[in-house]
Each structure stands twice: as C-alpha cells, then as structure tokens.
C-alpha cells in the first residue's frame, strides 16, 4: 500500500518529507516522489529504485528550490502501471501547477480518463491516480478554490482514496481527502501535517486527528478545516497517540502479525476493487491473457507452497464448481520432479504472496518449458514470478511482514475466486445473474471478516482453556479441509506444537488411532451440506476422549451437542467461508503462541520468503 506525507508551514519542508518517507519504507514500496510548492511554482522529483527509492530520491533533490513551505511525499506500491518513475507520484495536471499524491484505487479511472483526453488533457503516466490531477485542474479552471475543486472532483470518482493535493496558485495550502484508505492529520505550532501512517509524522506533530470516510480537509500553517463531501463543516476526531516508533510501525498493535490479522478486511476490499466493468464483466486490468485464451482453457494446474497452496486448494473447488474446468493443485516443490503432463489448453497458475518462492518459480518455469500458459497470482508487483509469467493477477494485501501468512491467504482466495467467476462468465457455465449474485456476495466477505475479528475475546477464552494441550488435529470437509490445513499450519509454525490437518472423512482410515484424552480436535463445520457428516466424525473423536473445538456459524444450534468449545463466525456462501472461518483459527494460533511466549513475527527456523530449494 502506498505511503503519504504532507507538510505545510515549515522552512525545511523537503527534509521533513524525506525523513517521513524513510519512516514509511517499512511498509514496502517500489518508487517514491516529492512535490514542493512556492509562489507560482510547483517543483517535483521522483525515483523508482525499489527499496532504495527514498535514497535515490534524495539524490534527485539536490537542485530543489529552498524555502518552499508546502510539500507532499509519496511511497508507491504499484497497482496500476509498472513500478517506474513515470508512474511514481506526485502526478501533475497539464499546467504543472497542481500536484497530487494518492493511495487507493480509482475504479472508474478508465471512463474519466477517456473523457478528459477528449477534452484535450495530456496524461504522462498509466496510473489510475493521474485522473485526479486533471479533474482538479478542470475544477480550478472553472473558478473553484482548491478545497472546492477537490471536493467536486471526488464526487465523480468511485473507489478508494487517501488523496493530498497542492497547487502553486494557492500556496501554503494542502487539501486532503479520504475514502477507505487511511489518512491522519497532525498539528504543531505554525505547522500542519498529514500522513497515511503515524510513523511518518510521529516525531513532528504534537496532536493527531483521524480523517474519516468522505471528509475533505484544508490544511494551512495555522491549522485545518474539514468538510464532508456535501460541503458541510465537520469536526475531526482527536487521536490519543503516545507510541514510540516501533509501536507506531505496528499501527499500535503488539506485533506485525496482530496488525496483519486486523488488516484482512482492508486487504479483501483492495483486492476486489476495480474488478467489475459497467457491462457486468469481471475484469483484471493487469492480467494480460485474452478472453479467447481463457475460453480455450481445458485444464488448470495450481502450484504453490505453504499457505498459498491452501488458498490454491480452496480455488480448486470454486473453479471446478463455477467454471466446470478440471483443476489439479500441486505442491510447487513436487511439480517439476514428477514429469508433469502439459497438454494444449493447460493453464498453470503459480500462487505466491512474495512472488519469490523458488519452488513456485521453478514449477512455473517447468510448466512454461512444456508449453503451458502461466498465470501468476502474487502480492508483489514485478516480483520474479510476475515478471516470468505470461499473465498476472495482483492481490493487494499490502506488505506482509510477519513470517506467518494471514492477510495474503484471504486476498489470494478472493482473487482466485474472482478469477473463477471470470472463467465461468467466459465459458457461460452459469447464468449471468448467479455470477452477479456471487460477485456481490464476495464484496460482502470483508464485513463478515470484520465481525469474525471482533470476537477475539471469545477465541482468547478457548485458547486459555486449552493452554497446555500438545496435540491438535484440524478437520474439515470440502473447502473446510484446506481451511483446516491452514489452521493447523498457523498453530504449528507459531507455537511449535504438534498440529495436523485432515479431511474429516479420512480420520477413521488411520489417524483415529492417535485420538485419546488430551488430544484437541478442531473442526471446521460451517457448510450446511457437510454438517451432518462432520457431526458424526466428531462424535467418533469425542467418544475417544478428545476435546472438541468447532468453528460453527451463528445460527448453528445443533453443534453444542458435540462441541466442548464453539468458535462462532457469521455464515456466508460455503465457497467464501474459508476467508471467514480462518479468522478464529488464526487468532487461536496467535493467542496460544503469545501465551507460550513465542516470537510470533519470527518463528524459529523459518524465513518469510524461501529462496532455496
Ligand atoms: O511467498 P509465498 O506465498 O510463495 O510463500 C509460501 C510459503 O513459504 C508461506 O506461505 C509459508 O508457508 C508461511 N510461513 C505460512 O504462514
């Protein structure tokens, strides 16, 4: 996710911006830029040098004008357009006076751009964000002051934004606005700040305020004024922030894992934004495989490791159900050593949060060598996997720091299920109204995840009650099975306790011999179609003395008969359930690990990205 900083009222504006951008580097980024405004002039510098971009930007700033009191800085995490300097922010309008920085996605950018180009505007990037600079330019030409121009321009856009704008014809002013993407304002005597994240301005501002959705703020050296999108004045909520830098980087959470677990609704929303055209077609701007090629797909093979493999296993059920294409899922480290068959019409999908997992890269290389078309589903723009694949879909989960993957999983499932719906549309395997209903259902999952997250205390109670247990079996059927695998992986990697995931029906074919008093069985039982069968599997383990924990929907009244502990989740479409059901399992693993005193962000023996075979 992009990082934003703005300052108005200082004489050392540039240095304040560069230091703030350095403090945003921990979030991950691929390019950076600044703009300064003084009377009649806007000056801009940008650099795209991966994680060295802020250092490269500093070198670009040697000729910066001195004494300009108003400035914006941005670190970019590419979504639309490659991570190149021309796509880095700030973006300018045609006159070069208006500069904007933006975090989020403008969903209707294509239609706005077409309209603006028709009116003579010249675009210099391929980003969705640049339309904002030209929309504001139009409003300024119509005589609106900067805050009015920002407000009226935003009435035309759909999507998510944390936006900040300056204009040399109105110096000593920044106008900022927010919808979905986070934005805060800070003040100190004679200076106002804004930022996407507290660390950027932690050591500068004295007082902090939250900008809420659809609010526009005009900042000057003397303070700020806020309006809603209708133009009515609003008051910003003051925040109490007494954090050190480390706590601020973790967004006030105890560790990165807690922060990333909490970020899952946002990761889902960002991944699903801007994927639906006006004609109802699901579309992936960045994908790069034609509709004809997708229609011709005869077989899909998903290759992935760890958590990404579990997301791929969920996708198998969705692609087969909705698009009626046969799907295989392979562990990426196994794929290339089994002499895989690649026939005409085979689409191989490499799924990887980092896009750098060597096993997955090698598997997709092997598939390509044998003639497959390769699609990458990854979180990192221009990662090795993305570069080598024929096509790419980006999850937009933002940087994941904690070794244990959490938000990447829900974002991968969402992106792959959206892809499954696109395949279904192209192959006409479902009525259009069913696709539309599923698409709407997918949009609602973020809110269901939020509700599941709000039940942390209930999960904590179960974790406390089971503290001391050493053996865990996670069971599920259908997509509950990969969810169980993922729950077990979270527990073992975070706590170092023994945890195994099994298809619930497989238990009686061997593992049942291990069930005895003291063993904990965690079952995912949210799918009504699987419910009865799971209940009888649980009766078997309960009869042998295991403690039974069940992830069950809010309306499930029969579960209490077999469960010692119930982890309640909101019900959803069964194929979407893994994104919701995984939440209590992540929290259970996390809370147990903390109680055991484990380093949850860096479990022993593990690396975030595995680049050796
Ligand atoms: O970056 P990738 O998604 O390719 O990484 C795959 C696995 O290494 C990763 O999911 C790993 O299993 C995590 N530690 C799980 O939490």
Report on the structure:
The chain is of the alpha/beta class. The protein has three domains: 3-249, 4-Layer Sandwich (Glutamine Phosphoribosylpyrophosphate, subunit 1, domain 1), CATH 3.60.20; 260-443, 3-Layer(aba) Sandwich (Rossmann fold); 450-596, 3-Layer(aba) Sandwich (Rossmann fold), CATH 3.40.50.10490. The protein is 35% helix and 23% strand. It has 19 helices and 25 strands. The strands form four sheets. An eight-stranded antiparallel sheet has the order 3-2-4-1-10-9-11-15. A seven-stranded antiparallel sheet has the order 5-6-7-8-12-13-14. It has a five-stranded parallel sheet with strand order 17-16-18-19-20, sandwiched between helices. Strand 16 (299-304), helix 10 (306-323) and strand 17 (326-331) form a beta-alpha-beta unit. The protein starts with a strand and ends in an 18-residue tail after the last helix. Bound molecules: 5-amino-5-deoxy-1-O-phosphono-D-mannitol. 5-amino-5-deoxy-1-O-phosphono-D-mannitol binds next to helix 10 and helix 17.
């Amino acid at each position: 996710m992009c990082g934003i900083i703005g300052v108005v009222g200082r004489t050392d504006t540039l240095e304040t911006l560069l230091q703030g951008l350095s403090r945003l580097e921990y979030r991950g980024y691929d390019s950076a830029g600044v703009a300064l405004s003084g009377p009649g002039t806007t000056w801009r510098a940008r650099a795209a040098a991966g994680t060295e971009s802020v250092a490269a930007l500093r070198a670009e700033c040697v000729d910066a004008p001195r004494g300009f009191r108003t400035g914006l800085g941005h670190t970019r995490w590419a979504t639309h357009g490659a991570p190149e300097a021309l796509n880095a922010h700030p973006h300018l309008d045609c006159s070069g006076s208006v500069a904007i920085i933006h975090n989020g996605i403008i969903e209707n950018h294509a239609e706005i751009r077409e309209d603006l180009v028709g009116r003579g505007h010249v675009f210099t990037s391929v980003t969705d964000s640049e339309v904002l600079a030209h929309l504001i330019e139009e409003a300024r030409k119509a005589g609106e002051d900067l805050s009015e121009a920002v407000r009226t321009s935003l009435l035309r856009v759909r999507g998510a934004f944390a936006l900040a704008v300056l204009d040399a014809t109105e110096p000593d002013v920044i106008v900022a606005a927010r919808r979905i993407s986070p934005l805060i304002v800070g003040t100190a005597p004679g200076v106002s700040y804004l930022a996407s994240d507290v660390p950027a301005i932690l050591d500068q501002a004295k007082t902090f305020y939250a900008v809420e959705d659809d609010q526009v703020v005009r900042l000057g050296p003397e303070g700020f004024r806020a309006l809603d999108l209708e133009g009515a004045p609003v008051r910003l909520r003051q925040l109490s922030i007494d954090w050190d830098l480390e706590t601020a980087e973790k967004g006030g959470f105890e560790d990165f894992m807690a922060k990333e677990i909490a970020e899952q609704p946002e990761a889902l929303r960002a991944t699903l934004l801007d994927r639906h055209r006006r004609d109802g077609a699901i579309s992936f701007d960045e994908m790069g495989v034609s509709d004809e090629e997708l229609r011709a797909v005869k077989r899909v093979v998903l290759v992935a490791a760890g958590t990404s493999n579990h997301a791929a296993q969920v996708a198998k059920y969705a692609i087969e159900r909705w698009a009626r294409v046969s799907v295989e899922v392979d562990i990426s480290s196994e794929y290339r050593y089994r002499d895989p068959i690649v026939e005409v019409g085979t689409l191989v999908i490499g799924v990887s949060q980092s896009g750098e997992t060597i096993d997955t890269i090698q598997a997709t290389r092997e598939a390509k060598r044998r003639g497959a078309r390769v699609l990458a589903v990854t979180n990192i723009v221009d990662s090795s996997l993305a570069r080598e694949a024929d096509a790419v879909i980006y999850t937009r989960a933002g940087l994941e720091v904690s070794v244990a993957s959490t938000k990447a999983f829900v974002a991968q499932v969402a992106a792959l299920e959206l892809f499954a719906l696109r395949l279904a549309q192209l192959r006409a395997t479902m009525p259009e109204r069913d696709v539309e209903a599923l698409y709407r259902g997918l949009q609602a999952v973020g809110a269901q995840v939020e509700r599941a997250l709000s039940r942390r205390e209930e999960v904590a109670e179960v974790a406390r009650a089971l503290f001391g247990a050493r053996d865990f079996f996670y069971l599920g059927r259908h997509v509950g099975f990969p969810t169980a695998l993922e729950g077990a992986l979270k527990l073992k990697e975070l706590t170092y306790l023994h945890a195994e995931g099994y298809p619930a029906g497989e238990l009686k074919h061997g593992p049942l011999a291990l069930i005895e008093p003291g063993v904990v069985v965690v079952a995912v039982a949210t799918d009504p179609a699987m419910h009865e069968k799971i209940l009888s599997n649980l009766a078997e383990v309960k009869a042998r003395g295991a403690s039974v924990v069940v992830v069950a929907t809010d309306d499930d009244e029969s579960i209490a008969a077999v469960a010692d502990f119930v982890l309640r989740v909101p019900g959803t479409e069964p194929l979407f359930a893994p994104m919701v059901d995984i939440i209590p399992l992540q929290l259970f693993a996390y809370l147990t690990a903390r109680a055991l005193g484990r380093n949850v962000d860096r479990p022993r023996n593990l690396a975030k990205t595995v680049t050796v075979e």
